[in-house]
């Protein structure tokens, strides 16, 4: 198996684990010394960034707010120890979130750039753009 085939397999495995609706994907896919960055959403002025512990805590909060959240891969481009992915994230608010009420559907298109070492993600940068919100 080439390194490109290997990172493609690892990326698909991570999305599959994410869609199980648990936090298993964080510890199973990310290195402890992870450098994770999610750039600001269009309506926000701040990004989120941190290590695996930060990502796990963020993921736990989002799972409690969006218990049905799901990701779909639209494009995946592997090269050596890196992968670029275009994803769709969607989830229904399970609690009121700011101005949005329970049952509000959220959808984001995500461009994610990932680097691997020893089978785990060591660096990830994500650009997220809302594609639909406020619909039921």
What topology does this entry show?
Blueprint: H1 3-18, H2 24-29, E1 30-38, E2 48-50, H3 52-65, E3 70-79, E4 82-92, E5 105-117, E6 120-135
Parallel strand pairs: 1-6
Antiparallel strand pairs: 1-2, 3-4, 4-5, 5-6
Notes on the protein architecture:
With 136 residues, the protein is of the alpha+beta class. It has a single domain, classed as Nuclear Transport Factor 2, Chain: A (Roll). The chain is built from 3 helices and 6 strands. The chain has a 6-stranded mixed beta sheet with strand order 2-1-6-5-4-3. A hairpin with a 2-residue loop joins strand 3 and strand 4 (82-92). The longest helix is centred in the N-terminal third of the chain and has 16 residues, at 3-18. It is globular, with a radius of gyration of 15 Å.
Quick description:
The chain has 136 residues and is an alpha+beta fold.
Give the count of structural domains.
1
Q: Helix segment count?
A: 3
Which structural class should the secondary elements be placed in? alpha+beta
The count of β-strands is 6
The level-1 CATH class: Alpha Beta
| Strands in their spatial order, largest beta sheet | 2-1-6-5-4-3
Residue runs with pLDDT of under 50 for 5 or more positions: none
């Amino acid at each position: 198996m080439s390194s490109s085939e290997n990172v493609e397999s690892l990326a698909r495995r991570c999305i599959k684990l994410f869609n199980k609706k648990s936090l298993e994907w964080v510890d199973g896919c990310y290195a402890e010394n992870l450098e994770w960055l999610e750039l600001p959403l269009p309506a926000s002025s701040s990004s989120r960034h941190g290590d695996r512990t930060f990502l796990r805590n963020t993921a736990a909060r989002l799972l409690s707010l969006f218990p049905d959240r799901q990701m779909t891969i639209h494009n995946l481009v592997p090269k050596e120890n890196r992968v670029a992915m275009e994803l769709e994230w969607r989830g229904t608010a399970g609690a009121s979130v700011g101005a949005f009420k329970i049952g509000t559907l959220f959808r984001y298109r995500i461009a994610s750039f990932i680097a691997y070492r020893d089978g785990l993600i060591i660096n990830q940068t994500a650009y997220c753009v809302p594609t639909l919100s406020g619909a039921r």
